[in-house]
Amino acid sequence: VHEAVGRIVAIAFSMAGIGLLFLLMRDFLGYQAAAYGLLFYAFAPSSIYFGRVLMSEPAMLCLSIAAVYLFHRFTQAPSPVWYCSALLAAALAFLVKLPTVHLAAPIAYLAIRRWGWSAARHPALWVFAALSLLPAALYYTHAHRNIGPHYFTVGVGFGGNMWFAPQHFLSPKSYSLMVNRLLKEHLTAVGMVLLVLGLFYRAGRPKRETLFVWWLVGVLAYFVAVSGGNLRQTYYQLPLLPAAAGVVGPAWALVSRLRAFRPGGNTALVALFAALSIWGAQPFYEEYTPILRAAAALDRLDPSRQPVIVMPPGYGCLYYLRRPGWVGRETMGKPAEWIRNPSDIPSPAYFEERIRRGARWVVFFNAPPQDARPDLLEYLRANFRVVHSDPDFLIFDLSRRLSKNKAHGP
C-alpha cells in the first residue's frame, strides 16, 4: 500500500468529520456560530497536522462526530435508519479508540433533552448502549487474552502508565505542560480566550448550546481517566477539538457582533488566529533528521533491506528505515506474567535471539538519560563491528562479530 493511499483515507475522514460537525453545530447553534466553530476546528494547529496523518485519529474524530450527529437526528425523527446509523458510528468509534466512550456524556444529554429522565426507562436506548459497546468489549477481551501476551501492543494490557494516577495531578509540571499544549498546539490563545468566554458568559444564550458543554465534560472525564497518556502524547488531546468548537463558535459570533469590535476587529482576530495556528503547527512538521540519515546510511550498506533492531526504541523508526525489524519495546506496558520469554527484554540475550530470527543490523540512537541504555551500547561495541558512525547514532553489523581478543583488548 502506498503512503499516498493512506493519507487520502485520513484526509477523507477529516473532511467528512468537518462536514458532519458543521451540520451538528448548525442545528444547535445557527449558521453564523457554526461557521466560526468550523473555522476554529478546521484550522486549529493540531487539526492541520493530524488531519492527514497515518494514524487512527482522523477516523476516531470523524466517527465520534458522526455518532453524536446521527444520534441527534434519531432524537429529532426516531426511525430505524437513524438509530442503526448512530449505533454503527458509535460502535466503530469505540472500536477505533476505546477512550471515545466519553461520548456517553453528549449522547446521554441528547437522550435526556428529548425524552427527559424517562429516557432511563427507554429499552431502545439501553440496547443502543449495549450493542455499541459490545464489539469493543469483545475485541479488547480477545486482544487482552490472545494478542497482548504474544505481540507488541499498546493498550490491550491496560498498563504502560497510561491511566489515572494521583501523582499526575500533584506536579505543577503536569499543569504547565497541558496549558502549554492547549495554548500552542490545540486551541491557540484566541481559541482559549473564546472557550472561556463561551463557557462563562451565558446571558441570553440558548440552552441548546449545552450539548457541547456536556461534550466537554465527557472529554474532561477522559483526560482524568487517561491522565498518563494525555501527559505523554499530544494527540491524546484531539477529542477536545470538536467539543471546544461548539463553545468557541458562539463566543466568536458574539464577539464579532460587538460594536466596539467594528470595523476590522474581526478580520484582525481571524488573521491572528491564522498566524497562531501556523506557528503552533510548525513544530509538528519538524523531522528528526538522525532517522533520515540512518535510513540513507542503511540503504547504502544494505540495499536488500535486511531486518534491523532500533535502540533506544522509537515507534516511527521502522517506517523511516523502510525495512522489517524490532524496536526494543516488545515488553512495554506488559504485566510480568505476559513476558514469557526473558529474551524479549532488551539485553544481550535479546540481540542473540533476534540474530537467530534474521536480524542483520542495529541502529543505536543517542537518547535522553531516562531512555539511554549504556549497558547495551557497551555490549554491542564489545561484540559487533561498527560499520557507520554518526554524532547521533551508530550502526552495528550483527553478521560481523569481533574476536574476543579484539573485543576485550590485550
Could you please describe the fold and organization of this structure?
This protein is an alpha/beta fold and 410 residues long. Helices cover 60% and strands 7% of the residues. The protein contains 18 helices and five strands. The chain has a five-stranded mixed β-sheet with strand order 2-1-3-5-4, with helices on both faces. Strand 1, helix 15 (317-321) and strand 2 (325-326) form a beta-alpha-beta unit. Helix 2 (31-43) crosses helix 12, helix 4 packs parallel to helix 6 and helix 5 runs parallel beside helix 7. The chain starts with a helix and ends with a helix. The relative contact order is 0.10. The model has no long low-confidence stretch (mean pLDDT 89).
Terminal CA distance: 52 Å
Radius of gyration: 25 Å
Number of strands: 5
Q: How are the strands of the biggest sheet laid out side by side? A: 2-1-3-5-4
Shape: globular
Mean pLDDT, nearest integer? Answer: 89
Low-confidence stretches: none
| Biggest sheet layout | 5 strands, mixed
Total number of helices: 18
Per DSSP, what share of the residues sits in E-state strands of 2 or more residues?
5-15%
The quaternary organization reads as: single chain
SSE order in H/E notation? HHHHHHHHHHHHHHEHEHEHEEH
Structural class: alpha/beta
Proportion of helical residues = 55-70%
